[in-house]
Amino acid sequence: MRKVVSWVVGVALIVGVAPLSIAWNLVNKANHDPHVINWDFISVSGSGSAFNNGVANQYPGKVECRGTGWECNFGPMSVSFPGSYFPMGCEPVNGGNCLDTPNTAVKVNISMTWDQAISLWVSRYGTTLHRHNAYTFYSITTSLCTMWGSYTRGGIKIVPNTQTCGGVPTVPNQCTVSGGTVDLNHGILNIGDIRNKKVEVSRQVSCTRSTSIKYNVSLGNPVDLGNGMSSLITVNGVAAGQAINLPGGSSTLRIASTLTDNGAKPGAFSKTVVLIQSFM
User: Residue 272 CA to chain centroid, in angstroms?
Assistant: First the structure.
């Protein structure tokens, strides 16, 4: 009698799971916190980000390096005027050309895919990069667009489907007077020699941009000084309370007092007033 022996053979099925490549989504954002810089430019903060959104090969094709043929920069950038492209963090008024040497980009070449370029950028900066002075645009433009691209001074290629545009935020105007308290001192005057006596003091004023502005006198204008005298306060030759025009940047503010004799009597006279600044 033969004995049949059954063998159970265990078969292990080993399945290799290839890692999924990163599926990048590029996002470039300009924040609305504008501040004026030189040459009629405005700068805002912003961020450039690369997120894994599960959409593989979202930016198909290879890197293009226009104007150079082989190697170029890659990173977030902006445009606010046809042909005026600025890498993130570039302020052209600072001198030089940061299309050549940006500090928010990586060097890429035409042998790389866009996904490889993005991966290289992430390996250097992480998934999100923020700059206080991120994007620059002319104050005369009506929109600010952000995008990703490859670039040198010789040429620019925008990564498809990464451009977004928004309105240019308005920079709040501000005029700051420097130099401290204004003392309009008429000195010693003689009775009968008071009318139309004038003293003037100059102060520097700096405005965010050109503006129409009023400086109103807190006590009204003319100002009653007592002892039969009054003073007309003028700013840049115009009676305080009336509009004057100031340019953007630094200029001179001339504040003057012109006396009127209303039956002046001997004695001391003085008055403290406040000029109230208001934009038109």
Answer: 38
